[in-house]
Each structure stands twice: as structure tokens, then as C-alpha cells.
Amino acid sequence: DSGVTQTPKHLITATGQRVTLRCSPRSGDLSVYWYQQSLDQGLQFLIQYYNGEERAKGNILERFSAQQFPDLHSELNLSSLELGDSALYFCASTPGQGFYEQYFGPGTRLTVT
Amino acid sequence: AQSVTQPDIHITVSEGASLELRCNYSYGATPYLFWYVQSPGQGLQLLLKYFSGDTLVQGIKGFEAEFKRSQSSFNLRKPSVHWSDAAEYFCAVGTDSNYQLIWGAGTKLIIKP
């Protein structure tokens, strides 16, 4: 158990809908990373937050957004969902500045039908 | 630009046999290197890391990896694999940018009984 929690574990929704994925980092970790993992794209970095502020953006679609709250949990919002958004979404956390090793949550499996 | 290459998409090994998974990186300075393992349906777990010092690093579950600067490699090894080692293995290198990781595409390890 990495100490990173993600909810829900599974999510099934229809095209065009909007969903919110939640991540709670390890106790004390300030930095949260979001990843998308699909069969054809592999592990893709989406976005990073550090202590409530966006720090880096990767291959995140405009339909996707994220935020990190004062209690350091983070949410990833996916809207206007398409079939191709079906994937595993992971969050990972680190203590923050100067730390590279990331600790991953168990993931949320999103299925868009 | 920094990059990580895992040349083998799949590797099949008999139970009890030795294992070597290849990882090559492209990075100008001394890299921070990682191996992660992802069991089916699970998140990624850190196996081992190299920051500096001894080029042979030991990790969890009996794995080790050797950093070879001259070959820009960080190959993962295990002397005798167990069926429970069947998983996907990811190599990653730390970047200068917000402590992000650049990920390889992963190698899927299949264990033959």
C-alpha cells in the first residue's frame, strides 16, 4: 500500500458525459501527478500540482482539467467524454521539491460507452 | 531531449530462469533512474532507484539494476524469476523540470511454468 488513495476504483459512463476522479496523496506529500494509461498510448503524464498550484502540463486535453485543494487532495475532471478516453487514470504523489520518486495510487478505470 | 527506451515490448522467461530487462536513456548529466513494476490491475510500485554512488543497486523482491554510464543503460536483473513476477516493468529517468519522470514504454514479462 503506497498510501495514495484514488476513488472511484471503476467508473462506467456514456459519451458526452463529465466525470471527476479523486486522489488523496500520501500524508505530507505536497506534489500530485496525474497519468493516463491506455493500451495504445502507454503511460502518459497529464498534469502536476504542487501545494495547490499547477506546476507542469503534459499531454492533457483541453476537455480535461484538474485542481489541488488546500487539504492537498486533487481532482481530475474529464468532460465531453469520448470512447478514446477509456483508460486507467493514476495519480502519484511525492513530498515535493527535490523528490523524484513517485508513489502511485491504485488507479481509476474509466470506461466510456 | 531526455528519453527512455525499453527495446523489448514482451519478454518470456521460464520460472526459475534468470531475467534481464533492458533500459536505455538519453540525458546530458548524471541521471536519476528508476524501475517500477505494475502487476495486472494495480498501480505502479517502485522497485529500485539510482541517484549516485554504487552503480549496482538492490531493490525489493530480489531485483537489482546496474547503471552503466558508458552504455547509457540501467538494466534490471533477477537471478531466478517466480510466477508472481509476471507484470509490466517500467524504466524512468528524472528530469530537471519540476522533478518529473520520463517513462519508458514498458516491458511485459511473461513467465512460462
Shape of chain B: globular
- Quote the average pLDDT of chain A: 94
Low-confidence runs of chain A (pLDDT<50, min 5 residues)?
Answer: none
Number of helices of chain B: 0
Q: What fraction of residues of chain B sit in β-strands?
A: over 45%
How much helical structure, as a percent, in the residues of chain A? under 10%
What assembly state would you assign to the polypeptide chains in this entry? heterodimer
* Beta-strand content bin of chain A: over 45%
Gyration radius of chain A (Cα, Å) is 13 Å
- Contiguous low-pLDDT stretches of chain B (5 residues minimum) are none
Shape of chain A: globular
Briefly note the structural class of the backbone of chain A: mainly beta
User: Which chain pair has the greatest contact?
Assistant: A-B, 25 and 19 residues
Major sheet details of chain A: 7 strands, mixed
Radius of gyration of chain B: 13 Å
SS summary, helix count of chain A: 0
Largest sheet, strands/sense/barrel of chain B: 6 strands, mixed
Distance between the termini of chain A: 31 Å
* Total E-strand runs of chain A: 11
User: Terminal Cα separation of chain B, in Å?
Assistant: 41 Å
SSE string of chain B, helix = H, strand = E? Answer: EEEEEEEEEEEE
Feature tags:
A: 113 residues; mainly beta; 7-stranded mixed sheet; 4-stranded antiparallel sheet; 11 strands; globular; B: 113 residues; 6-stranded mixed sheet; 12 strands; 0% helix
Report on the structure:
The complex is a heterodimer of chains A (113) and B (113). Chain A has no helices and eleven strands. Chain A has 113 residues and is an all-beta fold. In chain A, a hairpin with an 8-residue loop joins strand 9 and strand 10 (103-104). Chain B has no helices and twelve strands. Chain B is globular, with a radius of gyration of 13 Å. Chains A and B meet through strand 5, strand 9 and strand 10 of A and strand 6 of B.
